Known about the structure:
Elements: E1 2-11, E2 14-24, E3 29-33, H1 40-48, E4 55-60, E5 63-64, H2 70-75, E6 78-81, H3 93-98, H4 113-118, H5 120-124, H6 135-148, E7 153-157, H7 165-181, E8 185-190, H8 193-199, E9 202-207, E10 210-216, H9 222-230
Amino acid sequence: xxxxxxxxxxxxxxxxxxxxxxxxxxxxxxxxxxxxxxxxxxxxxxxxxxxxxxxxxxxxxxxxxxxxxxxxxxxxxxxxxxxxxxxxxxxxxxxxxxxxxxxxxxxxxxxxxxxxxxxxxxxxxxxxxxxxxxxxxxxxxxxxxxxxxxxxxxxxxxxxxxxxxxxxxxxxxxxxxxxxxxxxxxxxxxxxxxxxxxxxxxxxxxxxxxxxxxxxxxxxxxxxxxxxxxx
Length: 231
């Protein structure tokens, strides 16, 4: 389980996160909602080790991650699908997927068949350069690359951003599949409310670096949450 407890984070004198607390459990999707600039991406970057926190604790399976680097967190089972995808545009689809091998023992250095079951277009385009794919296909590739790492925590930062509706549906089905496997915790950051509502088990709404509303999916009141996303 991921546990974030009273986390603060500063960029110089500016405080970006204020006493943020949440958990993410296997078999569940925990969603963080909020407008642009409220700290969602900063929180995810802190969890994967790309930003260092200035207070509080981030723990994974009971162990404090402290100031551990991103590669150590990846070896511990944390995989990230960053905002903007960050694929390698000059590498082929096959090579992009294989970049996920770095944290795996040699016996596991292969692309799981479920990557192609969920995203069959990737199998058809293995030899094509990543930069030649559409935005939606690149997003599928970024998720597939994370799946190659066999993570036990998958962190996704706005996977629907700039994506056509048909591929948003494919991504939603993939997240549901991974959640239903029961062995992976999923932390999803989103602005697209309907997508997040349909997938989440628990939700947190951020504003100005802090969580201002939380609950289970059953406790979500559409008008209240939407108002926090549009103010």
